[in-house]
Write a structure and sequence with these properties.
The protein has about 800 residues and is an alpha+beta fold. It is built from 13 helices and 44 strands. The relative contact order is 0.09.
Length: about 800
């Protein structure tokens, strides 16, 4: 008996050891992680040579740009009128000169400068290096400190002008002699020649300040103003946040923390941020003089975005004389627009036009479409009404292609400017008032990937639009200040960028740069695969990009990971230009995954019907298109193992990922939801009320139109592996959005992983490499069924100056 028991025990133990050895997960090595890390942006971006890194127009009509070769960045000065180019300065000598004056070792490779301006005689250049301004000879013989302010940054938030580090941001007048800034909730005027400051307003107080940029999740010290073209007046507002709900953040510190309070209205709040529009005369008789427009307070809303400050210059426009102001007021739910004309001297306001939509008014993307044409006695208005599908567009889902119309100042429609047969108007980039043309970006152009942007121009008076960018690629356009030339950089996700200079008629004037990716390709890198699948209606094409492992083992099947951002203001792909690294998609794929991004129905650029596909049903999150699309990809590409599907995303993508894990629990096995706005009722009012609508009782018990749109109500359905992450100081999507889901998961007795990043905001900053590694580990362990290396340390990319 004893012997038999011993034999039995030995047999069972042996079987256990054998089964354990057989079932032990495959160990992924640190070397494999390091190989994947080779394809992150800070490693592969420098391998792309001769790509234009930014073009900057000068007041005299010239422009400069930078493009790197194997030694480092080159800075080039171009004169379009002469069709010539030359080095902006001697970069070798400049590196030596900046080393001498800055006390830092500067090499050609680390020579990163910005804000270039040139002296009238062309002998010197003033530039910014590591936050300081220097005036240097272009030969690089010498440099000295400069007090000249940096030129305005065209990519900064509107209202940004030149300025000095440590000083209030300035909004500089068109003639460069004056600037305004905020001090103690009031506006001040600075004479840029004498440096004398004058207080303009006196009744600004906390929560009722002038030109403030602190509504919702946005915060900056910039003054949100619009200067009149003659530099005599500014249009701005006094922002009323009195009685608006607050967001409270508790910093993680040793000892007693100091509570951080921020105004943060929520959907359904009775009191939300409003603005009282004002015009301030800074140069006329009796100046300074504040003229309050004679109208009720406006909602803090925009025709194009969820933050008024981003589009103040789009919705408010001056006549050349600075006497009239044409602007758009948007209703709280974004369903009603009013075009109004104000007298700058008296504050009298006349409503001249109204527009109403069923869902949400979208005034285009990018730089907006509203334009005041005072010399023509009217304005350009954007509408998606009555625009039929373009030829060749499937199933009518492209219906409601946005078009431009000319209206008189009497509010009556005069004529249509653009045609839906040429696609969907995205934004107006330039208006040639003298020649009578409007230049605009169009998407959904027939015969082209609907997300590729094309530049067109059309006669304002009516006539046939003309396409100015012949290549069937995605075009980024930068117009010269006078509109005579534009820089055109075009590429696709799988084709590197080419930059050229064209005239305003589209004529090719100069070839500027052509990116060289030979060093990138030599690493084994491969471009993403462009994919198109059918959407939820089984007839609409859904476009995206897919990245499989660069060197797959023959016959092996790979789990699929969907990176998602559901919009509705943008899509998952987001960038339809060339990129050596699309986040960490390429790197993650090298760990044995197929990574895909699909722009599902409910995202922009393809017309009203496509964009509003899930208006009022935020929990949709494009997920029906994602699931159907991923299944179709598995049929097209046999190396995809559709039984192992994962998803991850940040912000709206975090909302969508948890949503997918709860509402499609049999399909998605693993999800990483970062900083998700998991409950539309707990996210800022201007975003949620735009896309979900106003909070309205349904008449059923205590339900509203927001009931059931949250993730916490579906958390009990979780079956797979879910990681939730959030920064404890997130002032965009507050921490409680995630903790409400955590509470529901605990109540449902579900296992999950939670990471809180102390004091991190919406982005994780220095925690980002750690979170990336955690994300990789989670997918390797639970989706691939393998064991990740222990505490692999991701490299922290060096800063660029």
């Amino acid at each position: 008996m004893l012997i038999r028991d011993c034999v039995t025990f030995s047999l069972v133990l042996g079987m256990g050891i054998g089964l354990g050895a057989q079932m032990a997960p495959k160990q992924v090595t640190a070397a494999q992680y390091a190989e994947a890390e080779r394809y992150l942006g800070y490693n592969v971006d420098p391998l792309v040579l001769n790509a234009m890194e930014g073009a900057h127009w000068l007041k005299d009509g010239r422009f400069w740009y930078s493009a790197s070769d194997a030694q480092g960045p080159n800075y080039v000065l171009v004169n379009p009128a002469r069709a010539t180019r030359e080095p902006a300065f001697d970069r070798v000598a400049m590196a030596r000169a900046l080393s001498a004056i800055s006390g830092r070792k500067v090499t050609v490779k680390t020579l990163r400068v910005t804000g270039l301006t040139f002296s009238p005689d062309g002998q010197s250049v003033t530039l910014s290096y590591r936050g300081k301004r220097y005036q240097c000879t272009r030969s690089g013989a010498s440099c000295e400190p400069s007090n000249q302010p940096a030129p305005p940054n065209p990519f900064a938030r509107f209202g940004a002008g030149g300025g000095t580090p440590g000083q209030p941001p300035l909004s500089v007048s068109p003639n460069g002699t004056l600037a305004v800034y905020i001090k103690n909730w009031n506006l001040w005027l600075r004479n840029m020649q004498t440096h004398q400051d004058t207080q303009l307003t006196f009744d600004g107080v906390e929560n009722f300040g002038y030109a403030t940029d602190n509504a919702g999740w946005t915060n900056s010290d910039r003054a949100i103003v619009l200067w009149s073209p003659d530099s005599t007046r500014i249009a701005t507002y006094q922002q009323d946040q009195r009685g608006v709900g607050k967001l409270y953040l508790v910093p993680v510190v040793a000892g007693h923390p100091k509570l951080v309070t921020q105004v943060y209205p929520l959907p359904g709040d009775k009191v939300v941020t409003t603005i009282q529009r004002v015009v301030i005369d800074v140069a006329g008789p009796g100046a300074p003089k504040v003229v309050r427009l004679q109208m009720p307070p406006d909602q803090h809303r925009s025709t194009t975005k969820d933050d008024l400050a981003w589009s103040q210059h789009e919705d408010v426009q001056w006549n050349p004389e600075g006497t009239k102001l044409l602007f758009v007021s948007t209703s709280r739910g974004h369903k009603h627009e009013w075009v109004r004309l104000a007298d700058a001297a008296t504050g009298a306001v006349q409503t001249i036009f109204e527009d109403t939509v069923k869902t949400q008014y979208q005034g285009g993307q990018g730089g907006g479409t509203f334009r005041y044409l005072p010399k023509r006695g009217g304005f350009i208005w954007y509408s998606q009404k009555d625009a039929p599908p373009a030829p060749g567009m499937a199933g009518g889902t492209e219906a409601g292609l946005g078009q431009l119309y000319f209206y008189g100042l009497d509010g009556k429609a005069q004529h249509q400017i653009t045609s839906p047969s040429n696609g969907n108007v995205d934004s107006v980039v330039y208006v040639d008032h003298k020649a009578g043309y409007v230049y605009y970006i169009a998407t959904a152009v027939p015969g082209v990937n609907p997300y590729y942007q094309q530049l067109w121009r059309a006669p304002i008076a009516g006539g046939e639009p003309q396409r100015l960018t012949p290549e069937n690629e995605n075009h980024r356009i930068s117009f010269a200040p006078g509109g005579k030339y534009f820089i055109d950089t075009y590429s696709t996700p799988d084709a590197p960028p080419i930059s050229v200079l064209r005239t305003d008629t589209g004529k090719l004037l100069m070839r500027l740069t052509k990116a060289d990716i030979s060093r990138l390709v030599a690493t084994g890198w491969k471009p993403p695969i462009m994919v198109a699948v059918k959407g939820r209606d089984h007839k609409t094409d859904i476009y995206g990009v897919m990245i499989p492992p660069f060197h797959p083992e023959p016959g092996r099947k790979f789990p699929i990971i969907n990176y998602i951002y559901p919009g509705p203001q943008i899509g998952s792909v987001a960038n339809w230009n060339f990129a050596a690294a699309r986040g960490d998609d390429e790197a993650l794929a090298q760990l044995g995954f197929v990574v895909v991004s699909l722009d599902g129905m409910g995202t922009p650029w393809r017309g009203e019907k496509f964009h509003d596909a899930y208006y009022g049903d935020m929990k949709d999150n494009t997920l029906p298109d994602q699931v159907i699309g991923m299944k179709e990809l598995a049929q097209k590409f046999p190396y995809i193992d559709i039984s192992k599907a994962g998803m991850w995303g940040h912000s709206g993508g975090g909302f969508a990922t948890a949503d997918a894990m709860f509402r499609y629990p049999n399909f998605f096995k693993v999800g990483v939801a970062e900083s998700g706005n998991h409950d539309p009722l707990e996210y800022e009012d201007d975003w949620a009320e735009r896309y979900q609508g106003l909070v309205t009782p349904t008449g059923v018990d205590h339900e509203t139109t927001y009931t059931g749109q949250d993730n916490e109500s579906a958390a009990k359905n979780l079956r797979g592996h879910l990681m939730l992450t959030v920064g404890t100081s997130d002032n965009n999507v507050p921490l409680n959005n995630t903790l409400l889901v955590v509470q529901a998961l605990i109540k449902a007795n579900k296992d999950f992983k939670l990471i809180l990043y102390p004091n991190a905001h919406h982005g994780y900053a220095t925690y980002s490499p750690y979170q990336m590694r955690q994300r990789w580990d989670f997918f390797v362990r639970y989706l691939a069924g393998e064991e990740p290396p222990h505490e692999f340390k991701m490299e922290t990319p060096p800063p660029r100056f």
